[in-house]
Structures are given as structure tokens and as C-alpha cells.
Amino acid sequence: MISSTDGAVTAAPLRTGFRWLQLGMGIVCMAMIANLQYGWTLFVDPIDHAHHWGRAAIQLAFTIFVVTETWLVPVEAWFVDKYGPRIVIMFGGVMIALSWVLNSYADSLPLLYTAAVIGGIGAGAVYGTCVGNALKWFPDRRGLAAGATAAGFGAGAALTVVPIAAMIASSGYQQAFLTFGIGQGVIVFVLAFFIQPPRLSIPPKKKQLNLPQTKIDFTPPQVLRAPIFWIMYLVFVMVASGGLMTAAQIAPIAHDFKIADTPVSLAGFQMAALTFAISLDRIFDGFGRPFFGFVSDTIGRENTMFIAFGTAALMLLTLSAYGHVPLVFVLATAVYFGVFGEIYSLFPATCGDTFGSKFATTNNGMLYTAKGTASLLVPLASVISTAYGWKAVFVVAVALNATAALMALFVIKPLRRSFILGKEAESANPATANAETRAKTGTA
Q1: Alpha carbon distance 49, 356 (integer Å)
Q2: Which UniProt keywords apply (predicted)?
Q3: Contacts of 202 (CB under 8 A, 6+ apart)
Q4: In whole numbers, what is the pLDDT of the chain averaged over residues?
């Protein structure tokens, strides 16, 4: 290991196969934190049946988890830049295990909320570090690398949905929290010993005009002053709010539609509609993240966003009209999550393209807080559904996704290109930049 000039923990040598190994370990770590978000819906009704706290009060724990997971990522990213990814991921493994252990013993809402805070801190430490590390290792394939890493988070729950549901049914939700919590935490903790950042800065490759990439590494304060960052943040919130609502509420929605336990046969498999939907959702979500990341590396980030966000709006509209049909519910939610999860590959890749690799972990962490902002709307969905039904919730989500699709193509695309070309032109003409600086400061 070699010490860097800023005191960071030593970095790994640049070898072709080594970066794929790093990517693979990051994917596994992400899979181990997936259940904290995507497996949560399985626990909502069992917790309510045991304690009668009400869905809205229980779902507040989900919101607390997502807010904590996302809004603290920039702080955790600073620790990554300072001390390296290993210690941060080890810390995350301990915290996610502790969170679910506490959930297994929670006999009050304050304890449930405390566990959500701890789990959010741990999941954010793992998520932000693994995605940031992938962006640094793969500046030439940012969409694919970020998508594959995020796929672990999207599809990781697919392998454990059935075992968790079975354990909840046979041994109670408390035992499921305890068993899976400890197992997930241990795996993350062990893998952390082997995760390293690249030693050398790998220059991005401009492959085509529809994939603009900056040559400049922007610091976090510079990023926060850029209007394009806040426009991307707004679109992220608009799309993420619908996906988080659906992920958190899919079990209550299925129960309210009275189809949760209805058998559904598809491609030779037969399962209860809810279990089938959650399993397919995780598979499609996991596949969609690297797929759309790869597509965006080819046709451009914003073009891919337009396709994905538009498809998401169509699927939500289908659910609002025909979601009470078990087969439609299963297929529409699967396709929806297949196109929803790409925000976790496209936005990190777009952030890296726009603001550079050097501070990619912190800059992407700041953008990722949009997910926490979006999570604040999840409890609101329960309120709206109680007053007006789930159709009203879906209609709002359709409007947000359709608007986001148009903004990606007609707002983000031209503004981002203008930002990159403008900043590079300023960098190429330092005399002009210095003159502007003197004019602003009033110096001679």
C-alpha cells in the first residue's frame, strides 16, 4: 500500500483485471444492504399486526432510513476521500447489522426509528463508497460501472425475498430481522478488507459527441454553485419519489387491491401475486441498472433518461387503471422497476461526466441526497391514498415522471453541454478567467 499526498489510505495498482474484481466486490456489498430498503415492505404489515402502530407510523421509519442513508452520504464520502473506502465500508457493515438486530427487539416506535437511523447511516456508508469507487475505476464506462454497482442494491433483495417471507411466516418477523441482519453485516465487513481505490487518475475517453465529458475536476463547492447540478437534483427528486413510494407501499397496495395472495402463473412459475411481484421487481430493477447504464454510454445520458422516464410514466398509468388485475400488477410493477432503477446508474454517471473523477465520491454523494428529499413524499402517499385512493397517488407519480422525461431532453441536455464546453473554454483561456475574477473582486 502507498500513502497519498493528502493522507488518504494507500491505493491499489492500476491493473486491467483488478478493477473488475473491485467492481464485483462492490456489487456484493450493495446486495447485502438491499433488503434494508427493498425488503422493508415485507415487514410493514407483520409489525402492524403485532403492535397496531398503523402503517403511516411504521412507514415513517422507512422515510427516516432513506433520509439518513442519503443526506449523510456527502459526510461519509469525505471520510472516503480522507481515509479510503475500507474503513467506511467496515463501519457500514457493523451499522446495518446493528440496525436489524434492534428491529428484531423493537417494542416501541422510538426504538424502531432509532434502528432506521442506524441502518441509514450504515447503508449510506456502503452505497456512497461503492458507487464512488466504481466511478473512479471506470471513467471510460461510467454508465455500465455505476449501473452494475447499483444493480447489487436493486437486485440484491431478489435472492432473499422468498426466504425472508418464508421465515416471517414460520418464525416471525423478529427472527427474520435478526438472522438476515447479522448475515448481511458480516459479509460486508469481511469484503471491506479487500476494497481499494485506484492509485492513478484514469482519464476519461470522449467517445462521441452525444456523451460529453469534462476534462476538469470540479470541487464540491464549485458543483454546488452550478445551476445544472440543481436542475439534475430536481429531476432526480421527481423520479425517485414515485419509485420509493412504490417500493415502500407495494405490499399495502397489493393488500388494498385484494390481490396479494392471489396465485399468478407466468413462464411456468406460480406464486402469490405480491411475492411474485417483489421477486420480479428486484430482478428487473437489477437488470435495468447496468443495461440502461450501458445504453447511456452509447446513445447519451439524457436520451436514455427520456426513454426510461417515459416508460415509467406509462407503467404507473397502467397500474392506476388495471392494477387490481393480478397478472397486470405483477408485470407492470416489474417493467416499472426495470426502468426506475436506472436513475441510480444514470445520475452518478452524468455527475461524473459533468464534474470529473477526482471528487466523484463526494459530488455524487451530494446529488444522491435527492433520494432522501424524495423519501419525504412516501408518508404523503399513505395520506393521499387514504383520502382519495391509490389511483390519485399513481396519477401524481405519472405527472412527475412525464415532466422529468421532457426536462431530461430539453433542459438538462443543452444546459449540461453548455456548462462543460463553457468551463473548458474558460480553462483554455486563463487570461479571460483572470480578468473576470479581477472584475468580480474589484482588484486591479
Answers
A1: 49
A2: Membrane, Transmembrane, Transmembrane helix
A3: 14, 136, 137, 138, 139, 140, 357
A4: 83
